[in-house]
């Protein structure tokens, strides 16, 4: 592959530019300027949107904290849920502490008259 000899600068020197070439250059500069302005606007808009969303998130967190705070206090006042105590009934043939002595004798002997008495 042959490499062409170096000819010089690709862009013509300012004095060699034609009126048409200068107009085209000015148009391209204006297009670049407009694109940069659009980009700046989009970047600024994205930053404003990010800050707005951040502020909304903060407001929502504050709102929820205020609304949920009474519930947290209520749960703290109640404490952890207490396990339910299950009261087991004693078997029918064993005497119960809460029963009267007559009931204990009846459970023991199976009759109202006990041989122990």
Topology:
Elements: H1 19-78, H2 101-109
Distance between the termini: 130 Å
> Any low-confidence stretches, pLDDT <50, length ≥5?
none
Figure out the total of helices.
2
Oligomer: single chain
Overall average residue pLDDT:
76
> In what range is the share of β-strand residues?
under 5%
Let me know the largest β-sheet: none
Domain module tally: 2
Shape: rod-shaped
> What is the strand tally?
0
Q: List the helices and strands in order.
A: HH
Instruction: Briefly note the structural class of the backbone.
Output: mainly alpha
Rg, Å, rounded: 48 Å
Question: How would you describe the overall organization of this protein?
Answer:
The chain is mainly alpha-helical and 117 residues long. The protein folds into two domains: 18-79; 89-117, no CATH class. Helix content is 59%, strand content 0%. The radius of gyration is 48 Å and the shape is rod-shaped. The N and C termini lie far apart (130 Å).
């Amino acid at each position: 592959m042959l490499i062409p000899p170096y000819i010089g600068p690709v862009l013509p020197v300012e004095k060699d530019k034609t009126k048409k070439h200068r107009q085209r250059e000015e148009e391209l500069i204006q297009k670049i300027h407009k694109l940069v302005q659009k980009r700046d606007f989009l970047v600024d808009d994205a930053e404003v949107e990010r800050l707005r969303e951040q502020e909304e998130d903060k407001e929502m967190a504050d709102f929820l904290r205020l609304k949920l705070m009474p519930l947290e206090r209520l749960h703290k006042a109640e404490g952890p849920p207490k396990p339910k105590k299950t009261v087991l009934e004693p078997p029918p043939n064993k005497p119960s502490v809460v029963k009267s002595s007559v009931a204990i004798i009846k459970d023991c002997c199976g009759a109202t008259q006990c041989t122990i008495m």
